[in-house]
Design brief:
- The termini are far apart.
- The protein has a 5-stranded mixed beta sheet with strand order 1-2-5-3-4, with no helix packed on it.
- The protein contains 13 helices and 5 strands.
- By secondary structure, the protein is of the alpha+beta class.
Length: 296
């Protein structure tokens, strides 16, 4: 039946992607792909509806497949639990992410859209300057780390006998966090961030803390020097390479260029070049990765 449903929907799973999940896992769907939910005899449609409403708005159109009908019946998600008979499968198509405000994917999309070249000028000039560069993973890590840190009686070894003790611990933790933020420029910067992004964030924090910093060209000169050392064969090539990468990351951050985004874009070119070389059974061309050399 799955193949028949897919054919009726006119979907190419390879080109468009398609999630196929049982009803009990409907709440874990990704809104960025169409989904076909199989409904077994024990499935609770009310629970399926509740799970989908955590992702999609009530007016989301569904296509319900019934054993007695070849063509699906269209119904709104909000009416799913009121269906007269149990469908064998439920299809949910992709919706624009900005119409799915309850999802992390929507948050990531909206922030990226605001900061795109044709997005909001204030968010491009102000958000990046004041907060440093970040992605959704950084935001989630900060929130989750704070929640764990502020609940040591749940995630740590602290023992409490009453709600009053919990409140006292909470206030003490907040006071210590505030004191740390006033004395440390790196308070709240997750050490587990991607390495290039962490370097850029540290430089932005140092700038906001009023620490005098070298000019961007100084970092570039250091990078050039370390690269020359690598060519000569240093005693500690790992450290020399790390310092070259750090200098380049700090140069980018000083120029308001996000080194993490820069490397991510370059990685996409690398992946495309490798796929192309594999398809053509040819060698990997440096010009596909770095473009033609510029003439000084």
């Amino acid at each position: 039946m799955l193949a028949e449903w897919v054919e009726i929907l006119g979907i190419d799973p390879i080109r468009q992607g398609l999630q196929i999940v049982p009803a009990e896992k409907a709440a874990g769907l990704s809104p960025e792909l169409p989904a076909l939910i199989t409904v077994g005899p024990e499935a609770d449609l009310a629970k399926v509806r509740a799970g989908l409403l955590e992702i999609y708005p009530p007016d989301t159109p569904l296509k319900l497949f019934y054993p007695s009908h070849r063509q699906p019946v269209t119904a709104a998600l909000g009416e799913l639990a009121e269906a007269r008979s149990r469908p064998a499968a439920i299809f949910v198509d992709v919706r624009p992410l900005e119409e799915l405000p309850r999802t992390f994917q929507a948050l990531e999309y909206i922030v990226a859209r605001l900061r795109a070249p044709d997005g909001c000028p204030w968010d491009q000039a102000q958000l990046a300057r004041e907060e440093g560069r970040f992605n959704l993973g950084d935001v989630l890590e900060t929130v989750n780390t704070k929640l764990v840190r502020r609940h040591p009686h749940v995630f740590g070894e602290v023992k409490v006998a009453s709600v009053d003790e919990i409140w006292a611990n909470w206030e003490e933790l907040k006071r210590s966090e505030k004191a740390e933020a006033e004395t440390s420029p790196l308070a709240g910067v997750p050490k587990a961030m991607p390495a290039l992004g962490y370097a850029a964030q540290v430089l932005h924090r140092a700038r906001r803390f009023g620490i005098p910093l070298p000019g961007a060209d100084r970092f570039l000169a250091v990078a050039a020097g370390r690269l020359a050392e690598l060519r000569a064969g240093p005693a500690d090539p790992l450290r020399t390479l790390g310092e070259a990468l750090l200098a380049l990351a700090l140069y980018g951050a000083a120029r308001e260029l996000d080194p993490e985004d820069a490397l991510r874009q370059a990685n996409r070119r690398l992946a495309a070049a490798v796929e192309g070389a594999a398809a053509a059974r040819s060698a990997l061309q440096l010009t596909d990765l770095f473009g033609p050399a510029e003439t000084p």
